[in-house]
Amino acid sequence: MAVFFGEMQTKSDTSRMKAVVTVENGRVRLASGTAELGEWPLHTVRFEEYTDKSFLMAVEDEELILFLDELDRFRSEVGRYIKKSGDERRRPTHPAFRKKDEEPTQTLGEEIKEDVSREVASITEEARDLIDKIPRGTPLLVGAGVFLLLLIFLPQVIAIITLVGGTVALLAGGFAYADSGFALRLPWDLTPTKLVAAGALLLAVGIVVFTIR
Asked: How far apart are CA 13 and CA 31, in angstroms?
């Protein structure tokens, strides 16, 4: 199962609403908050790259524009259902016309392994992004100096703060993965993946501090 968070709008209305897109077992599910808007077989949905930061999703005579946080991963997930430039052919919608290669070919174990690998890669990428966002130069030196002073004089406080903060972030991220309504209420631009990545980094720091204190 792959879950994507972001926003959506219709072509005729520029106001956006929070969106959760779930791709699982050859089907795509769209939700906003606690309301599930619909679920369709992937072969009945047309995806098209609308801009470099959005996708067009056409289903049941409705066209929605999706602005997702992990657009590259979404592109990879629904890649073979994306309408290519100049390709006007529509995929048959009745299950009787599905091609054999569109039938599920993975075992449950293989699917779980693939889902876990995909989520781990996504969390690792978010962790790298968080590290890359740390200001360089003077702010980094000042922050490192303050952290070292606290580490020398208050190691237990640092260990407790990072371990508790990391645990809370991991629990919140896991809960957000399980409850799309909670995920959509996250403040700022937080996503479940970002929470899990931040939690993993804080726990790593906490474990190191606790070990060397």
From this structure: 18
> Which tens digit of pLDDT belongs to each residue from 183-197?
777 887 788 888 998
Q: In the predicted model, what is the mean pLDDT of residues 46-53? A: 89
Claim to verify: residue 97 and residue 190 sit in the same structural domain = no
- The domain of 16 spans 2-102
Name the 3-class secondary structure at 6. Answer: strand
Contact (Cβ atoms closer than 8 angstroms) between residue 191 and residue 7:
no
Phi then psi dihedrals of residue 80, to 5 deg: -80, -5
Q: What is the pLDDT of residue 84?
A: 58
Given a cut of 90, whether residue 88 has pLDDT beyond it is: no
Point out the domain boundary residue: 67, 102, 137. Answer: 102
pTM, entire model:
0.60
AA identity, residue 2: A
Same domain, 17 and 62: yes
- Residues 65-68: contacts with CB within 8 Å, 24+ apart? 65/8, 65/9, 65/10, 65/11, 66/6, 66/7, 66/8, 66/19, 66/21, 67/6, 67/7, 67/8, 67/9, 67/16, 67/19, 68/4, 68/5, 68/6, 68/19, 68/21
**Final residue belonging to a domain, choices 76, 102, 128:** 102
- The mean of the pLDDT values for the chain is 81
